[in-house]
Write a structure and sequence with these properties.
six-stranded mixed beta sheet, Molybdenum Cofactor Biosythetic Enzyme, Chain A, alpha/beta, Molybdopterin biosynthesis moeA protein, domain 3, 16% helix
Amino acid sequence: MPPMKSHGPLTSLADALALVRAHAAPLPIETVPLSEAAGRILAEGVRSSRDLPAFDVSMMDGFAVRAADRISRVMFAVKAGDGPSPRPLGPGESARIFTGAPVPEGADAVVMQEHVQREGDALTIPESTRPGQHIRRRGEEVQAGAEVLPAGARLGPAELALVGSLQASVQVRRRPRVALLSTGDELVPTGTEPKPGQIVETNSLALAQLVRECGAEPILLGIEGDEPQGIAASLASVEADLLITTGGASVGDHDHAQAALEHLGGKLLFHSVAIRPGKPILFGTAGHTARGLPRVYLGLPGNPAASMLGFELLARVFLRLLQGDPKPERTLAKCVLASSPLSRVPGLVFFPRGRVSVEDGKLVFTPLVQQGSMQIASWAAVNAVARIEPGTGKIEPGETIEALLVGPI
């Protein structure tokens, strides 16, 4: 009979995260067009090559005037898209102007069309007119040479628009590639009618979407049986920065994730984390890609809820760091516990799933009724995971807790 396997000492979540961070070297930099840059992290800051706006711009439809004038004559019209005006405006002269048009030289204010009196080319200007009125000055938003976005900035809609006003591409880290392999003799692919004793494999669907949400690219390797050489063979040649297996991460006779890592020539860094659910998680190095970059191996539990939690706590941080994200963790928010008490777990950080809502201006966390790690539906409709530090006793409704926000409120 083979010797009994053991997890070894429990690794604290803080120590596990420290090891994950220590092995998350940012990936090589590449230049991508803005059309492919949404959600990505700038590897190098963006500096403005010009003033924004590039000229004095009218903010209204009206008349470009000299603020000191009370009466003026309309000399010409300027609309958006026009080049420089035919000539500067002199004393007693004004120009018809439209929103977005360049303000003619000599004008120092724009008066809205409904605030003037006009008879033919003669214009009466209100006494309340002040210099700078309704004009966006050149360089008011950004001056040439200024940094508009720093390295580490995430490119959301507004950031893309800002960069797009200056250039057509950005420098970002290459997207991480993540190999996903589900293990277990009992698993069958989705779309298969399971026989007695079989289970339809769904972890890869959930994890692949989490990988995409992290800005990485999933590589689906399918299903491998409970045999360490086969698991290692499936992972050996894949060109990925992170290898993830689900199932076989514990220490039973048919748990082979650790043996598979050994067959890959890898090094185990920890095996078992002091959390619930998902304690049997292993993490290690697994050689290098064909390009010479290091590969990391994360063995997650096969139970769906535990697998997704392990990804959120560890894999997400790793993948965001590879992309140069200075804030790779989910937001940890203070919430009021609602509905039912939560029990602390001695020696383990407990992560019950639930929903956060806003009530009377406060964030309120409501735990789900189903908390079993084997229940696929226990993550459905979840937008938060409470973080309950180790201890004894219960946290009662109305008390303040912390929760990781994993979805929109």
